[in-house]
Amino acid sequence: MNIVAPTHVAGPGRLLRPKETDVWCVDLDTAPGFAEVRAILSADEIVRAERFCFPMHRERFAAARATLRIVLASYLEVEPEALKFSYGEFGKPLLSGNPLHFNLSHSESVLLIAVAQSEVGIDVEKVNAQCDFAGIAEMHFPPDEASSLRVAPPSERATRFYKFWTAKEAILKARGLGIANGIGSTVESPGNWSVCEIAAPTDYVAALAINGCTPKINRCAAPDYSIYSRLP
To answer: Is residue 112 part of a domain?
Structure first.
């Protein structure tokens, strides 16, 4: 997999500057699996992992949650298992009692985590050329976006669809809303929100939304899992 080359390598005590957003890009299939990370997961995360019928989905879910804990712990200088999460009405995770803002998204084996000093949302999608994106757009997108897809060269339609979709998902996730609350809205920056496309691995499309002006984006590599004694 062609993971986007990092511009920063973050570690314990990483400083997040104003008007900057760190975006971590991780290949979940190369991260430690459920057995290795179980010790730093919460009881409810373990239950959720064990509900998956297919081992691959269980392993990826566990790796994503453990990676999120390790990433956030690197800013807060605490143990990953000490973090307590709460959840918004539509499932957006929040750090209980801490002003650090974050969001995560994964598609197939790609995980993206955004960390910022203001409300943030991120979405990544694997481009599936077999998806009925034209039909979805006709039914759910505003007329101008559906028209844009119709007139696009056939080779570009799938990618254009996912650019619209990830932008919508990112802004809805940043605002703590469900997809039904705005998939039919035009992609734009409402109020004080900024939405931008961000670099993603080959065959993926990703977008970020943040409360405020478009930030400087620092691309971060996978965390050093080995610095945590409970992991190999």
So the answer is: yes
Full residue range of the structural domain in which residue 139 is found: 21-226
**Confidence band of 132 (pLDDT split at 50, 70, 90):** confident
**What is the domain count for the chain?**
1
- pLDDT tens-place string over residues 162-205: 999 999 899 989 988 876 555 545 555 556 889 999 999 999 99
DSSP character string of the chain: --PPPPSB---TT----TTEEEEEEEEGGGS--HHHHGGGS-HHHHHHHHT-SSHHHHHHHHHHHHHHHHHHHHHHTS-GGG--EEE-TT--EEETT---EEEEEEETTEEEEEEESS-EEEEEEE--TTS-HHHHHHHHS-HHHHHHHHHS-HHHHHHHHHHHHHHHHHHHHHTT--GGGTTTS-SS--TTEEEEEE---TTEEEEEEEESSPPEEEEEPPP-GGGSTT--
